[in-house]
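Tokens for chain A. Residues wanted.
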């Protein structure tokens, strides 16, 4: 392979045939290498940027080099030879790692997810038709319910019970819940692809961590019909690109990244196009076990020997660039006078002397070329025009690189990160921490001030005089202190032993300095005590804490926005890749099994017209402040019974605070209206019940009056009947009495006659008896007087009393009856 002498970029206006030549790709790769320099050159753009990235990553992990702190402490400490600096713990204080984790976890805790909407005119028209249809169904909800009851739902495509009650409530859901078939398929396919790549948990987390640490994040999309749609992480330290000042890299024309691959993998991927001499050169460039160069002259003779190269790693530049190719069409007139357009390809030469008029037309197409360049060599493999490039069907002349790159900010093609802004303060904080350790190590223990003269000539009995050192020993062991209160001149003197309380020198000043640099780091990063929840909960007012949290969110907004833009770029590429999956590929069958055959049929309509143009909107969970505000309103509404539990669950399920508030207002109005209607119904029911009760009372009173009248009439009737019966009975009785009287009158007359006759007879009998008795009595009297004869016998038995006249009459009446 011939090495070209030029190191500049090749002609971008070259023909398509020239661009497809490997020499063109090799020249482009060498130009990239010349612009960025070698990896091991500290003065190159690549080397300078990697030094900054490596330093920032070490600070972000709390593993920065501590030699600079040792040098600074030795230069500030003149008596460094005492060995106190050797006993210090130089482990960096992990302040910046804490702030990086707070930022990363705060961004990822929002759980971003793609909301895909079709923005082409046909989809918009179809969605508007669905919206109008739902609005009409909401307006005719009552009629649809009646139709459902009559037909059993056989002729209704939408269940009226699942429709919103009002048009105002329907408007809230129409903006987000109305999805066309293509949008549903794209949504399912995108979420499934991201899930298969474990994008949110691995790639996105590493990218957000890179944004906070080094200010740039890179991911690459690979679209292969056999291996699927893959989204892989790219280390920004090994990423190269064309010069740009755009933090979203929308104007770059080339990009690539350096990676180390096994030598056998390079040989396999190149379809074994290397010769034996090429293998020897590659082995000299390769590293064995990732460390040392090896110059063995083992020859490559057959594919079976590829395994012997598994320990050799080769540094390659996997790059791609954008190029503009002209596609020609010719407008030609036929013999009938009609004009038609004909495709002429990329190499068009105008024909002269034609019978019919010919007019050329051209269209610029942005294409992507890719290749794999072995660094520090003349080898390039897999150079070609990139296949399966996803494009927007409504603008097929434009293409995008497979790299999705975002940065927080850019200056001279160098990103500036949050950690980079805090490196100086982190060094001073670490240095202050070491000074605190040094001050503690150099601190003296508590001491004594001893006045020797005050301890002289102290006598303790027979022991003689005590020496000052002996008195000190007694004081240290027993705490008893012996001394003379008077000096030799006779004057009083102070106690000769006094304690010295030694504190750590400058410890308070060093602690204040440590807190000062910590506050500077907080000011630079924007992560205050309220944001990282390090301050007590009740220490600040609610409004102050909310302002502090809002200030922290504003400070990290560039990182949040960059991470969401990266998520959006990845989702846009995935959606476009889904639309160009070959119909007969294994990948198509996998997606058909996963999300449905009909969904993929709707989505992958590249050969049909129209192909849908999708827009991706990244949605996140609500902020904590928004959640608290919304939950507070929900609880107030629930306590006042203005919404139901089902309404609260529906409101909490929305991701947009504006939609949630609108739904809360609508459901609250609806509930209040229902309560008013219910109150009106209750009032009407009560009035109706009162009216019914009054009517019932009136009816009861009327019935009572009617019954009373009936009873009165019946009473009168019964009374009349009784009177009639009484009169009839009286009449009968009178009749009977009269009959009796008549009978009695006739009978009495006969009886009277008989009575009189009997009475006359009786009277006569009685007269006879009396006469007889008188005769007897007279006889007795005469006999007694004369004592001439015996007494006459009485007819009445002795012992019976004669009846009186009344008894006699009664007996006579009984006998008559």
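Reply:
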């Amino acid at each position: 392979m011939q090495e070209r002498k030029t190191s500049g970029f090749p002609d971008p206006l070259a023909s398509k045939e020239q661009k497809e030549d490997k020499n063109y790709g090799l020249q482009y790769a060498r130009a990239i290498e010349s612009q960025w320099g070698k990896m091991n050159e500290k003065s190159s753009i690549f080397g300078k940027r990697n030094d900054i990235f490596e330093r920032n990553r070490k600070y972000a992990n709390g593993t920065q080099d501590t030699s600079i702190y040792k040098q600074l402490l030795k230069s500030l400490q003149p008596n460094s030879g005492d060995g106190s600096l050797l006993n210090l713990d130089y482990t960096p204080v992990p302040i910046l790692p804490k702030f990086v984790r707070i930022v990363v976890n705060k961004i990822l805790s929002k759980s971003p997810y793609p909301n895909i909407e079709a923005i082409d005119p046909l989809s918009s028209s179809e969605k508007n038709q669905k919206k109008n249809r739902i609005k009409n169904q909401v307006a005719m909800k009552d009629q649809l319910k009646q139709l459902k009851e009559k037909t059993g739902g056989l002729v209704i495509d939408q269940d009226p019970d699942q429709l919103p009650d009002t048009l105002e409530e329907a408007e809230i859901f129409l903006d987000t819940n109305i999805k066309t078939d293509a949008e549903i398929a794209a949504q399912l396919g995108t979420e499934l692809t991201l899930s298969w790549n474990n994008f949110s948990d691995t790639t996105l987390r590493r990218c957000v961590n890179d944004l906070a640490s080094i200010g740039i994040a890179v991911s690459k999309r690979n679209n292969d019909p056999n291996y699927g749609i893959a989204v892989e992480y790219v280390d920004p330290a090994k990423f190269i690109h064309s010069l740009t000042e755009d933090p979203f890299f929308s104007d770059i024309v080339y990009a690539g990244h350096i990676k180390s691959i096994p030598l056998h993998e390079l040989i396999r991927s190149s379809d074994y196009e290397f010769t034996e001499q090429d293998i020897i050169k590659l082995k000299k460039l390769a590293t064995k076990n990732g460390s040392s160069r090896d110059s063995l002259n083992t020859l490559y003779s057959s594919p079976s020997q590829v395994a012997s190269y598994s320990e050799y790693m080769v540094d390659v530049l996997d790059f791609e660039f954008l190029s503009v190719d002209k596609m020609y069409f010719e407008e030609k007139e036929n013999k009938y006078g009609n004009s038609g357009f004909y495709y002429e390809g990329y190499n068009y030469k105008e024909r002269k002397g034609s019978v019919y008029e010919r007019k050329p037309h051209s269209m610029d197409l942005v294409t992507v070329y890719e290749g794999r360049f072995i660094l520090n060599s003349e080898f390039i493999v897999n150079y070609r025009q990139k296949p399966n490039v996803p494009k927007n069907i409504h603008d097929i002349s434009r293409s995008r690189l497979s790299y999705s790159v975002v940065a927080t900010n850019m200056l001279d093609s160098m990103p500036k990160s949050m950690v980079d802004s805090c490196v100086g303060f982190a060094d001073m904080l670490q240095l202050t921490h070491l000074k605190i350790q040094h001050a503690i190590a150099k601190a003296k223990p508590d001491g004594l001030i001893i006045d020797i003269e005050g301890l002289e000539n102290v006598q303790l009995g027979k022991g003689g005089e005590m020496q000052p050192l002996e008195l000190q020993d007694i004081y240290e062991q027993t705490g008893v202190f012996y001394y003379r209160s008077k000096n030799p001149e006779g004057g009083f003197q102070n106690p000769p032993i006094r304690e010295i309380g030694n504190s750590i020198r400058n410890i308070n000043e060093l602690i204040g300095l440590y807190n000062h640099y910590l506050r500077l780091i907080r000011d630079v990063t924007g992560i205050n005590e309220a944001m990282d929840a390090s301050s007590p909960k009740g220490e600040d007012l609610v409004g102050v804490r909310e302002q502090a949290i809002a200030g922290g969110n504003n400070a990290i907004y560039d990182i949040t926005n960059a991470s969401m833009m990266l998520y959006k770029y990845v989702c846009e590429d995935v959606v476009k890749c889904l639309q160009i999956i070959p119909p007969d590929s294994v990948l198509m069958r996998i997606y058909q099994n996963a999300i449905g055959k009909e969904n993929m049929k709707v989505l992958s309509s590249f050969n049909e017209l129209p192909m849908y143009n999708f827009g991706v909107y990244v949605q996140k969970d609500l902020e904590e402040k928004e959640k608290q505000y919304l939950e507070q309103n929900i609880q107030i509404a629930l306590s006042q019974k203005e919404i139901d539990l089902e309404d609260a669950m529906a409101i909490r399920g929305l991701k947009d605070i504006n939609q949630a508030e609108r739904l809360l207002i609508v459901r609250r109005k609806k509930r209040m209206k229902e309560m008013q209607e219910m109150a009106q119904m209750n009032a009407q029911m009560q009035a109706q019940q009162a009216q019914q009760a009054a009517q019932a009372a009136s009816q009861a009173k009327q019935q009572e009056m009617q019954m009373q009248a009936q009873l009165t009439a019946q009473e009168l009737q019964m009374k009349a009947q009784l009177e009639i019966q009484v009169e009839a009975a009286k009449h009968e009785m009178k009749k009977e009495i009269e009959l009796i009287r008549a009978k009695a009158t006739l009978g009495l007359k006969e009886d009277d006659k008989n009575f009189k006759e009997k009475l006359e007879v009786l009277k006569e009998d009685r007269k006879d008896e009396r006469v007889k008795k008188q005769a007897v009595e007279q006889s007795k009297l005469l006999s007694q007087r004369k004592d001439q004869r015996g007494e006459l016998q009485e007819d009445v038995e002795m012992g019976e009393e004669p009846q009186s006249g009344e008894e006699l009459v009664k007996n006579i009446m009984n006998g008559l009856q």
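The chain has 23 helices and 19 strands. The first helix runs from residue 16 to 19.
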